[in-house]
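seq/struct pair 1
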Amino acid sequence: MAGKKKIMDDGKNITRGGAIETVEAARAMEALFQARFARHHEELRWLYMELYDNDSMFAELCEELYVYADQRPAALKKRDLEREADPEWYKSNDLTGMMLYIDNFAGDLNGVRKKLPYIEKTGVNLIHLMPFLDTVPGRSDGGYAVADFRAVRPDLGTMDDLEKLTAACHKKGVNVCMDFVMNHTSQDHQWAKRARAGDGEYMSRYFFFADPSIPREYEKTVPQVFPTTAPGNFTWLDDCNHYVMTSFYPYQWDLNYRNPRVFNEMMYNFLFLANRGMDMIRIDAVPYIWKELGTDCRNLPQVHTIVRMMRMIGEIVCPSVILLGEVVMEPVKVVPYFGTVEKPECHLLYNVTTMCTTWHTVATKDTRLLRKQLDVVNALPKQYVFLNYLRCHDDIGWGLDYDTLKLWGISEVPHKKFLSDWFQGLTPDSVARGELYNADPASGDARQCGTTASLCGIEKAGFERDAGAMERAVRFDLTLHAMMFMQTGIPLLYSGDEIAQVNDYSYKDDPNKADDSRYLHRGKMRWDLAEHANDLTTPEGQVFCGLNALGALRKTNPAFGASADVWTLDTGDNGLLAIGRYYEGQKIIGVFNFTGKEKSASFPWDPGEFTDLLTGEKYVLEDLHIPAYGCYYMEQKQSRVSAEAEPADA
């Protein structure tokens, strides 16, 4: 039996951490824990011993799993039971997410709680709280340099405030996601401070080397994450005469997961945070967490062992919590983080490649690469669920399929230059307003920053007071979101996008932010603009109401569900993208125009009358006219037919 009882028993009731429950209920929960533990024990032990070959550390881990399960609040235990009964709850087409910075959105955690009515109004029922754990100003990397995994940043509130927020969210049917930074800690973390002081136990939790030859060997094979702003993978510490591995920034020290103490302690932090009411935990930079000399220290097999163990630990202690993996790489490297159907790892992964390919399509007005990317995703098992988004807190990196582009006469280096220029508004046909991030003059490589609205032309149209341009820009903004809502997976909005919020250039006046252009799209929520949410004479109201309509359609039409068949269709025009969805007699054809010209298309293999879900108008898909930057959601009710009935060339 795992764990030890930590309860007070008077024969009738049991006291656990101040909460009272009946002996019968306590015994039932303990039996449930033991059943969950037994289900995974053999595999968990095998994987742990494969990595660490350490019986005592594994025994300690098992003891602590019981402790965290025992400490889990009653409301969360109830949530665990409900979601064990419905393990695919997160695949529902009812789920729509929004990521937000707590301070920018509402000041602090209590402010977010007060804004829950607004969040409900958006139709969102999953909020992703961007990093809120304690960090040091000026050495935070947007919160990803954690100084204390068990404390909230003081200006944002306390752990008690966090629990109040998650409880309030749950009462309103809103799920909560947070970031768990696994790869590194801040140099201000207590472990790092003790390591820097020469404590060998804590030095072993990082990668410390006095001999420069070892870091030099790593540098031969390990790519640089930020070659211009944070070159190299090691930082020299004058005060202790050692190098320490710092893959991201000098103040972010990579953890050494070859040490079982690191794995155990980080899992305890993970469970502590899960017990504060999280429904989803995003594991940050997961491909980097295992380092091996002579490799690129990316996506090594041991990473998958660790993620698989995390999945099992969650299913033992907090089965209502799901894992979202951040893997910002091409699909061939992303998909393995789902694991297998029999041995799953992450529940959800970001659809990064489709996001950046979408913006490539915006600039080129050529949908071929996007269609190919969507075909790859649609061919995956339906158990694999992606989180789809247009914009997020991060930059857009141009990790495109250059092998395919080369076949079409497009070379990588000049194409990246074209994209950089287009999204800065430097080309004659561009409507975008963005900035570069981490530009490398030597290679010409750069990443792109900007809000959805600014990259779609809303900022430019507003600045120029061009009503016609504004109408087209708003239409394009909604078309891109409509296309994103049609994709396989869960749509995720970025806070402010629901009211067409444009770039915030005030970051340049803050010395802690001025060197990081990602703050261009991390501006404060414009609550003055949110007051226009229902005013259809404003861009804010048009986008807000348009997104609400798209979300409502997705939630109420079965063809948007995770079990639907999804495919792309040949439009005969590279400026158009068409996506089909089918489930139990409902077919929806989405058609999206990425160009500034009206287009026409015919779909002879889809005869009969269709109804546009967005307007209610009837159409036959012969010589269908699609407005510039416009879209349709065409629905047709059918008798139940198998997916095999769809044409092979669809």
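seq/struct pair 2
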Amino acid sequence: MKNKLLATFWVAVLTFLLASIGYAQKVTISGYVEDAASGEKLIGVNIFDVRSDQGAVSNTYGFYSLTIDPDSVYLGVSYVGYDTEVYKGLIKEDLTLNFKMQSSATLDVVEVVADEFEETIEERTQMSTVDVPIEQIKKIPALLGEVDVLKALQLLPGVQSGGEGQSGLYVRGGSPDQNLILLDGVPVYNASHLFGFFSVFNADAIKDVTLTKGGFPARYGGRLSSVIEINMKEGDLNKFHGTGSIGVVASKLTLEGPISKGKTSFIVSGRRTYIDLLARPLIRAAFKADDIDGGAGYYFYDLNAKVNHKFSDKDRLYLSVYTGDDKFYFRSAETYDNSFYETRAELGWGNLTSALRWNHLWSNKLFSNTTLTFSRYKFNTLAGQKDEFDDGDGNVFKDDFSVNYLSGIDDVAGRIDFDYVPNPNHFIKFGVSGIYHTFKPGLFDLDLESSDGNSTFTIDTVLGQSDIFAWEYSAYVEDDMRIGDNFKLNVGAHFSGFSVREKTYASIQPRLSMRYLLPGNVALKGSFATMRQYVQLLTNDGIGLPTDLWLPTTDQVKPQDAWQAAIGAAKTWRKEYEFSVEAYYKNMTNLLSFKEGASLFQLNDWQERVTQGSGRSYGFEFFVQKKKGRLTGW
């Protein structure tokens, strides 16, 4: 069965590639688009030739490719918040053309100059996708002064939070584990600080955020409800500078600049709460007032770092790392005449992600990105108690007991993605990936030492389930194509497989999005996508506590499946306002939850504590956004 699925997939790949052959007598303009001041690559920049009515969009790494007839061109490069760049000339052969865009002093300049070049919402094939500039996120009122990416996304239609002030996302009826959250292409398994009230993403280190709620392109897989792409800044290639702030909750510091001017840059951004440091003397004094030696506190921190190096116009290397932790601690110790009593507790959870990426330009039409990643999410809790008593005759009676619970997930992954642009009517993406999962379903480390003055009894044992190892692999191909003047189509397929113990699952998931331009520049859009999820979250209902447990599909627990269909319309008015309406229906099967009465902290097999069922969601969304001018918002 698996061989047949693979064969079907590669037939689709060859069909797409062969369909693109035969476009002779064409020339290709290609290159990179970047910020003139910092050298940051700009994502989603519109490159449009007025004379041929053909255009392209820069990819995640700022690369674009536009194939047209050899002739004179009137090329415009436009991006919100930047002055439009214009290139005029006669093109007779392939040309490499890099653009350095200047940030606009005022948005009025962009509004006047960019009108004829700027891509509007009705031009895009993709629906159910929202790009939120980080500068716009920073302007949104923030809880206790902390700008939060996920809270900004909660303000969008089709997205809800788990509760007041929390940062969890429920997209179109899905659960938080059905969101694929990518930080520089690496999945983040727990995106919450402070029990869900803040997210782990430091806005000072982020370049852009994109939310996809449906109509998923074939390059995405592994989740049912949404994809949240968050890309870190790359660091200023030209000058060193930094920013810092002291807030109610946390303090932040960001430093960036060139290591080798014009070739290598870095950025380091850190954030930490400090209330525990300020409150520590007060808490100790409060304990001491009751003759207790003790303390308690809570803190979280984030650290983002990234280095990128430009070997040439064809090769670039990126290394990015994120680490963050939350920790709560408590200790209370009392001494009486001949006895000592101590209670201690700890609760901690955190993420580590790292990515090494290599961009290579094979030709002016073929671009690749190769990525190696490692990620880890861990949760641990410790509770302990210690009693000592001296009977005065030299006999010491002691009981020292502690239990430590540990769970988490480790991933080692690799993937390669290709962008192939044979001509303006086709934008082909294809690639493969593999992930080696190590699941830690939950271990209890029990330590006991008991002494009656003459003999000592000890227990040092580990209870629970051993690690589970699994392979997850995927391949995809998609083509964003233009058919005539009014019709655009994105069609593709995503193949995925999962091998755990002696069981293997495989699936081919077709994806389709379309756009038809009606009179009056009103775009009618539709999409259909099927998804499969092999990694799932067992969680307590209510507040999103970090005691959530990530677990794999097994021979007893089936993978989650879903399909979603949507239809809608979009229109831009006066180049300032975007309107869109969408209706969707989503059907889900094999959803996972605890059985009634079951809980996380039990020693029996977790597969015996879960049940699976089905669900559906449907809705209607209306969205209007003002993107330009002194007043913006949605």
